Structures are given as C-alpha cells and as structure tokens.
C-alpha cells in the first residue's frame, strides 16, 4: 500500500498517532480533572528532585508561557509547588506535592491500562519496538541538530 497526500508525511502520521494516544489518555485522566499536559508535568516531577521551569519545559515539550499557566493551575490545586532547588538554593524549582503524588498513584493504574490497550491493539512486541524506534529517531534528530 502506497500512501499519498497527508498519509505520505511522517510529520502528519506522527501527529495523528499522538492525538489518538492523547485522546485515550485524556479520557483516563478526566475523572481527576487533570489534562494530559498537567499529568506530564507531574509525571516529570515524580522523582522528587524538582526541575527549573526551563528544564521542565524541555522535558514536557511545552513552550514556557504555556507551561507557566499549567504550573500555576497545578499550584492552585496544591498538586505542585515552587521552592528552592535542592542543588542550588538560589534557584527556584518546581516539585510535585504530596497531594500530587497521591493523584499520580491513583491514575498510574489507569494510565498503564490505557497503554496496555494500545499494546493489545497493535501488539506488545510491535508497541515496544515502536517505542524503541521513536527513541532512536529522537536521538538521531538531536544528533543531526548538533551537527548543523
């Protein structure tokens, strides 16, 4: 089968797949009144080390102004907080709160189930291979950017 039109564009196919996966994830998170972006922020902070806004923006793939609004909403709900960085107390970092960690614990199972649905539909081995291939693609693109 030869794709044509938008279907022949890697960027389009990746965007379409991302939207489909995020729709399923959003459905899982709606009961906690958390968006996919907010979940990504809290998941990125779950290790407890804290992140600067710049580090967090890069990790969760969000522009700074959008991230700031999302973090402010999470702070309003006491799911994350700002505080001094553990590595450099002069810097401000964002941390997941106890309440945010509890929310993550509640949704972890549902998020895992959503990923299992994808693996069942696409095949577990193919899903794992796709994840490895996407990681490799990102590494290759990052390397190509460095060489430019």
Structure summary:
By secondary structure, the protein is mainly α.
Characterization of this structure:
It is built from six helices and two strands. It is mainly alpha-helical.
Secondary structure tally, helices: 6
Q: Sheet bearing the most strands, described?
A: 2 strands, antiparallel
Q: State Rg.
A: 18 Å
| Number of beta-strand segments | 2
Order of helix and strand elements from N to C terminus: HHHHEEHH
Shape: globular
- Strands in their spatial order, largest beta sheet: 1-2
* Low confidence ranges: none
Helix content: 55-70%
Mean pLDDT: 92
Distance between the termini: 35 Å
Given helix and strand content, the structural type is mainly alpha
Write the layout of secondary structure elements.
Elements: H1 10-29, H2 36-45, H3 53-60, H4 64-76, E1 80-84, E2 92-96, H5 98-122, H6 124-147
Helix pairs in contact: 1-5, 5-6
Name the descriptors.
two-stranded antiparallel sheet; mainly alpha; 148 residues; 2 strands
């Amino acid at each position: 089968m030869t794709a044509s039109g938008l279907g022949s564009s890697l960027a389009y196919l990746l965007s379409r797949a991302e939207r489909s996966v995020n729709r399923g994830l959003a459905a899982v998170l709606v009961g906690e009144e958390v968006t996919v972006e907010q979940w990504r922020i809290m998941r990125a902070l779950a290790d407890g080390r804290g992140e600067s806004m710049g580090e967090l923006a890069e990790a969760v793939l969000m522009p700074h102004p959008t991230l700031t609004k999302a973090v402010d909403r999470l702070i309003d709900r006491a799911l994350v907080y700002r505080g001094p960085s553990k590595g450099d107390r002069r810097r401000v970092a964002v941390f997941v709160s106890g309440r945010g960690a509890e929310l993550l614990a509640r949704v972890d199972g549902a998020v895992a189930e959503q990923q299992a649905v994808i693996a069942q539909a696409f095949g577990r081995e193919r899903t794992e291979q796709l994840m490895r291939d996407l990681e490799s693609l990102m590494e290759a693109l990052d390397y190509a950017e460095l060489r430019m």
